Amino acid sequence: MEEADVDRILEEKGKGKRKKYLCSWMDNAPPQWVKAADLEGTVALDEWITATENLEEEFEDEEVVKTKSKTLAGWVKSARRPCILVGAGLSAPVLPTFRGKGGLWTRNPVAFDPSKGPPPPPTTAHKALVALAKAGFVYHLGSQNYDDILGRAGFPLEKMSELHGNVYMEVCENCSHQYHRDFYVAKDDAISHETGRTCEQEGCNGALRDNIVHFEENLPWGVLSKCNAKFVGADLTIALGTSLRVEPAASMPFKSKRRSRILKPKVTIVNLQPTPNDDEADLIIRGTCDSVLAVVANELCGEGWEDAFDNIEKKDNKAEEHNDSPSSSSKARKKRNNQQKNKAKTGENTTKQQKKRGSGKRSQSSRTTTTDSTAAKKRGKPRK
Question: Concatenated DSSP letters for 8-39?
Fold first, then answer.
């Protein structure tokens, strides 16, 4: 017998004392069956128990989706303060979801390592949201995604609250300076969210930390309070690609409707699976975010909106390629990022001290869900 780290459970068989689990291993050894008793208290077993089966996706007829999307476009056009909450379904064409088919929180997740490869490209839905926001049809957007796709696509940052953080963002623990990277900054073995890099501001040298909000951790007070205030005053809210199961974000689209008798706000849910709040919605669309937002953008921004978006993107890329000026911020940032990334690999800036996260700002409302557990428990158990 040897101690080995379980990656995840793949299958189970038997009952009672005879129950066993087929486990994959962190060292890439072949999967083996392990007795249930030998996995007690491990993260792998917790994840297996709390994981869901793939939630069945429901697709409405294409014409039904189109008709409902046009209705939504009319509501957006007449709304004074439309607010949007987005979830993993928004990025489904380029990233796996959590509870959908092959979702990361299901028992049959797709293989996915977010730290490898370049940042994912924007989808039609991301581009549509950018076009709608720039045309004045989005009052505020709360994002549960930390993939940074919306920000990179050009969504106005002043209109967006990244509730669960951003995997491409580092923040200095001393001066709070933010670094927007071109690579994934979070580390699985990080201590207190430290990334192994230090602040580049003159005279600072503070440790840099990722700003990802894990389960049972508090959301940043400033981000949460701003987003909450926007949604409370909304006269139209839209939940896009979210199962509405993770609080406090899940309650955002319904705050105004539950409190205001004067505004008579409407709520729309765009999701392929049922949510716990479907009975509170005025409109439910069982279609993809891409298909729905393409119609909404066509109605409000004109049918050439995506071409205009792509032309702007091409111009930006061309300008970057031909800009030989030393002051080119994009080139300078990429050069700094590569230097810092290389330093992290060699361990030059690694620190192992336990330090308090953040800069003393208040936080509240832990990120929670009724079915997910993140207890820090040992994964390693005997392997034959």
Answer: EEEEEE--GGG-EEEEEETT-PPPEEEEGGGG
Residues 164, 193, 214, 322: which is the catalytic one? Answer: 164
Query: What whole-number distance in Å separates Cα of residue 82 and Cα of residue 229?
Result: 13
Q: Which two tokens stand for residue 303?
A: 């049918």
Q: What is the dihedral of CA 297, 303, 306, 309, to 10 degrees?
A: -90
Q: Tokens 């609080």: give the residue.
A: 247
> Residue 313 to residues 52, 90, 121, 287: CA-CA distances in angstroms?
39, 20, 12, 27
The sign one gets for the Cα dihedral 167, 173, 176, 178 is negative
On whether the CB atoms of residues 382 and 7 are closer than 8 A, the answer is no
Please choose, from the candidates 198, 266, 275, the residue with its C-alpha nearest in 3D space to the C-alpha of residue 242: 275
- Tokens coding 105: 């929180």
Over residues 170-215, the pLDDT tens digits come to 999 899 899 988 887 877 666 678 888 999 999 999 999 888 887 6
Q: How far apart are the first and last CA of the chain?
A: 5
**372 CB contacts (<8 Å, ≥6 apart)?**
50, 105, 215, 246
Omega cis (within 30) before 122: no
What pLDDT digit, counting tens, does each position of 341-368 carry?
Answer: 444 443 433 333 333 323 222 334 544 4
**Identity at 11, one-letter amino acid code:** E
From CA 73, how far away is CA 256, in angstroms rounded?
Answer: 20
Beta bridge partners of 140: 83
CA distance 77 to 73: 6
Q: One-letter amino acid identity for 244?
A: L
Answer with the residue of higher pLDDT: 343 or 232. 232
Torsion from C-alpha of 65, 71, 74, 75, nearest 10 degrees: -110
- Among 51, 29, 28, 48, which residue's Cα sits nearest to residue 40? 48
Sheet containing 194-198: order of strands: 178-180, 169-172, 207-210, 194-198
Interatomic CA distance for residues 55 and 100, integer angstroms = 5
Whether residue 164 lies in the annotated active site: yes
Q: What are phi and psi of 160, to 5 degrees?
A: -130, 140
Q: Are 77 and 277 in contact (CB under 8 A)?
A: no
Please indicate whether residue 17 or residue 374 has the higher confidence score (pLDDT): 17
For the record, the structure tokens of 77 come out as 């056009």
